[in-house]
User: Which sequence fits this backbone?
């Protein structure tokens, strides 16, 4: 997630540095979840002995927790692990990778924290592109035996010498936080004070309150941030599909929805009566405006009705270095009406699929893209392999129309086939919900997948969670309209 200087300053309040020294029978993810519940405002994954692969495995459990809480998540000392995870950034020490190198590796939007002990180091770090400084050890601590102790007077000089946030670290707990009074720092970084506690949630809440009192920050409540998902799709005047379904889905999943509209449709549950395309240049302008301010962590692409709009989207995605792109190749509405002009399928295949983390065709769309009928599990697997030749991402063939996994004994299957980028084939089995109101199911599923990716979930889990959400929306049995009606996107909130 991209954080403004103001948001990052606020996030310094209670900076939790993980440690596995006091876990006992608890998992690191359980402990971090409890710390976030108690009010931790920043999480750094630190495990000095862990390999890059081990850090990535640990981080995959922590990143979704931090994204859901709107809290920055960085990795200590390991830029490669941070990149592989899609973490918000990295924290480096004086003997680790140089700040400028970390900034170059992670890009301008990443958080790069730097440990310093002197005014000279602080100024050099800021000049090299540091986002914030960690200063300490303020009090001698066994977790930082190599760090020089930083007296309160020096801490005060460092905070006054730079224009970026400063967090103090080293030996800080509820009994020692008073040493920070009047230093001008924006928060306290703690390790054992949180993770060695028996009741992490309560201890974290107490620490947050004490930090606020000592530093004059006031109560912890106030403005917060949310991960954002951008939907690039057509508008459905009936509210059941397209942009409207995407906004409802993204909001219901707890994220912030942004949009770029490709087409305006006149439609209802009975069918589509008109399509008005947005000029391609204006589609690009919408996408650029979104990325210039509230940068999305995932992008869902739905209805794109002309090759020219496809080209405009592809250019904008590249220009803005978009990540976690989900392409739902919408070629026709649930009612059967065509929503794409000639040449769109080829444009999607050549220009948008190569930029996608996953594509989500239904059976009809998969058949149109591949050029052959899909009537069995074997056909679906062959089709997924064929589509995977066009791009390096994943393929999800949605089987809500009756596709059954190999060996399935279900009389009413709704199985989906997920082909992962490494070639693995995963059948996601499900029971078809007896509900004639399926308007917007494809839009809903793809948006929910984008939400999972924005939260940092592994792709397969993002797909499974999205399928479960869609199943719940169908089971809610909302009944609106004279034709195939919409879903209840807010079913979990009722």
Assistant:
């Amino acid at each position: 997630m991209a954080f403004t200087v103001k948001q990052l300053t606020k996030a310094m309040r209670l900076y939790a540095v993980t440690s596995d020294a006091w876990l006992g029978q608890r998992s690191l993810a359980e402990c971090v979840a409890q710390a976030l519940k108690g009010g931790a405002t920043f999480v750094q994954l630190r495990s000095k002995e862990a390999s890059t692969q081990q850090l990535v495995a640990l981080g995959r459990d922590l990143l979704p927790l931090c994204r859901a809480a709107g809290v920055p998540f960085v990795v200590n000392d390991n830029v490669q692990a941070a990149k592989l995870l899609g973490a918000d950034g990295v924290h480096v020490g004086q003997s680790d990778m140089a700040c400028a190198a970390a900034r170059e590796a992670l890009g301008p939007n990443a958080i790069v924290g730097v440990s310093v002990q002197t005014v000279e180091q602080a100024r050099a770090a800021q000049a090299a592109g540091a986002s914030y400084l960690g200063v300490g050890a303020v009090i001698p601590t066994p977790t930082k035996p190599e760090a020089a102790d930083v007296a309160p007077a020096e801490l005060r000089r460092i905070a006054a010498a730079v224009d970026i946030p400063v967090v103090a670290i080293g030996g800080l707990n509820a009994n020692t936080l008073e040493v920070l009074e009047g230093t001008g720092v924006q928060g306290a970084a703690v390790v054992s004070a949180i993770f060695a506690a028996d009741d992490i949630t309560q201890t974290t809440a107490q620490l947050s309150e004490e930090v606020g009192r000592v530093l004059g920050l006031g109560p912890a409540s106030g403005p917060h941030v949310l991960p954002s998902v951008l939907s690039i799709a057509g508008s459905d005047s009936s509210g059941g599909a397209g942009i409207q379904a995407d906004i409802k889905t993204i909001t219901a999943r707890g994220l912030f929805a942004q949009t770029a509209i490709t087409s305006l449709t006149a439609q209802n549950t009975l069918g589509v009566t008109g399509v008005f395309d947005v000029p391609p240049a204006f589609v690009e302008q919408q996408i650029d405006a979104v990325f210039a301010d509230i940068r999305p962590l995932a992008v869902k692409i739905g209805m794109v009705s002309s090759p020219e709009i496809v080209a405009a989207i592809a250019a904008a995605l590249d220009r803005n270095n978009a990540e976690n792109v989900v392409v739902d190749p919408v070629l026709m509405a649930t009612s059967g009406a065509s929503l794409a002009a000639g040449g769109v399928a080829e444009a999607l295949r050549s220009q948008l699929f190569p930029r996608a983390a996953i594509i989500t065709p239904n059976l009809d769309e998969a058949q149109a893209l591949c050029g052959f009928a899909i009537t069995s599990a074997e056909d679906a697997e062959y089709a997924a392999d064929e589509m995977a030749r066009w791009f390096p991402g994943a393929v999800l063939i949605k089987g809500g129309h009756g596709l059954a996994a190999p060996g399935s004994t279900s009389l009413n299957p709704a199985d989906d086939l997920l082909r992962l980028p490494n070639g693995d084939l995963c059948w996601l089995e499900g029971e078809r919900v007896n509900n004639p109101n399926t308007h917007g199911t494809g839009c809903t599923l793809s948006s929910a997948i984008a939400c999972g990716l924005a939260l940092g979930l592994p792709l397969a889990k993002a797909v499974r969670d999205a399928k479960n959400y869609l199943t719940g929306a169908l089971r809610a049995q909302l009944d609106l309209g004279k034709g195939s009606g919409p879903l209840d996107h807010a079913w979990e909130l009722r």
Observations:
- The two ends are 29 Å apart (CA to CA).
- The chain has 17 helices and 17 strands.
- The longest strand covers residues 256-268.
- The CA atoms of residues 139 and 196 lie 18 Å apart.
